[in-house]
Amino acid sequence: MNALVRLIAATAITLFANGLAMAEPLTLGIAKAAVISDPVSGRESLSLKMTLDSAKLFADFTRVNIGKVVDLSIDGAVVMSPRLMEPIIGGEIMVGGTFAPGELERIAEKISSGGVSVTVDARAEQPGG
Hints:
Blueprint: H1 2-17, E1 26-28, E2 30-37, E3 44-50, H2 52-64, E4 70-74, E5 77-80, E6 92-95, H3 103-112, E7 118-122
Antiparallel strand pairs: 1-7, 2-3, 3-6, 4-5, 4-7
C-alpha cells in the first residue's frame, strides 16, 4: 500500500511539473497526419500519430482526465469532444465526424507541413456534472 501511495505522489508531482494537472491545453507534436478510411463505417478519418514525447505526455494527460470531456482542437477550432473512458497510451488518435469534401486532406497536409497547432484541453467541470 505504501508503494502505491509513493507511485501516486510521484505521478502527481510529474504532472504538476509538466503543467498537465492545470487548466492549460496540451499542444501535441504530430509525427504523421494521414487520411484513412474506417473499415467499419467506410467514412474517412484523420489519423494523428504523435511524436514519442507527445505520446508520453498525452498518455499522462488522459490518465488524469478519465471521465472528463476533452476538446481536441486543430488551429484553435474544436473538431471533437469525446469523454475519456480510459487512458490513451498508443500515441495515435483518430478524428472522425462530418467534414466537407477534401477538408480532412487539407488539414492533414497543413499538420504535416507544421503549419497547424493541435491541442487537447480538459473541459472545466460544470456545476452538478
